[in-house]
Amino acid sequence: MPLVYTIVLLILIVLAICAGRELWRGAGWLRNRLFPGNAHRRKLLEKSFAYYCALSPAERRRFERRVADFLADKEFTARGDLTITEEMKTLVAACAVQLTFGLPPVRLRHFRQIILYPEAYFSTVDRRYHLGEVNAAGAIVLSWKHFVEGYRVPNDARNVGLHEMAHALLLENRTRDDGEYDFLDQRSLDHFLECAEAEHARSQRGEPALLRAYAHTNPAEFFSAAVEVFFENPAAMTREAPQLYGALKDLLHQDPARRAVPGTSGV
Ligand SMILES: [Zn+2]
Q1: Which residues cross the membrane (predicted)?
Q2: How far is the CA of 163 from the centre of ligand 1 (A)?
Q3: What distance in Å separates the CA atoms of residue 65 and residue 69, rounded to the nearest whole number?
């Protein structure tokens, strides 16, 4: 084939790809008709999830895909008088995606069970009331009331959803049996642990600590509490513990301090 035909053919192929992408972008209404569940989920995210609202259109599509992937193999169970709704599923998934959005796709596959209680629940193991927990057998447990509160007050550095997802993330990273294993960069994780140690030493010396006392129970609790502050009060973390902020930024590949996330969210 003469060179000129080859060039013309290549140009036509590129133009066709560009036109196809534009058509796909512009045909949101068609997508919504073909996949009405997705449209409903999108509305829920727009209404209730500030993190999603601050994303670019392309990032929003990626976020939606990850929400759908997360939900693909999850089984939700309600306790007490709670009824599981599409909104609950979407927002729990969105919470997991928020935490893992900078990482290669991670669905927390080991955790197939999501158990929702209407509010704080009594644990017969330690005879205390819990707001949430993660168990190694593969369940993420949350008080729905407190999950909602975690997002309703977006800057108090308390978010039980992110806290439990952070526990699940560390466990998933060490779970070999489901294809999601060792996805966190070990050097970044080591650096985070060094910073955590330094913060812990500061608190032991009685110096003002950024994280609440409970964070100093053990490294896993420190990670979960640090994740809450990282997303909910990144300005304080960059100011008071810049090394810790940098370590989490490198580990999660996210920089919430530089992203203007709207301050209100009505879950
Ligand atoms: Zn915890």
Answers
A1: none
A2: 6
A3: 6
Which of 189, 130, 140 is CA-nearest to residue 168? 140
Number of C-beta neighbours around residue 29 at 10 A: 9
CA angle, residues 222, 258, 49, in degrees to nearest 5:
75
Distance 164 CA to ligand 1 centre (A): 6
Q: What is the pTM of this model?
A: 0.84
- What are the pLDDT digits (tens) for 9-26? 777 776 766 566 655 555
| Cα 224 to ligand 1 centroid, rounded to whole Å | 6
167 CA from centroid of ligand 1 (Å): 7
Question: Do residues 227 and 99 touch, judged by C-beta distance below 8 A?
Answer: yes
Q: Which run of H or E residues covers position 128?
A: strand 128-130
> Measured in angstroms, how far is the CA atom of residue 217 from the centroid of ligand 1?
9
CA of 191 to the centre of ligand 1 (A): 21
- Compute the distance from residue 227 Cα to the ligand 1 centre, in Å: 11
What's the pLDDT tens digit per position in 211-248? Answer: 888 888 899 999 999 999 999 999 999 999 999 999 99
Domains of the chain as residue ranges with CATH: 35-153 (1.10.472.150), 185-260 (3.40.390.10)
Query: What does residue 233 show for φ and ψ, rounded to 5 degrees?
Result: -145, 60
Contact by Cβ (8 Å): 130, 207: no
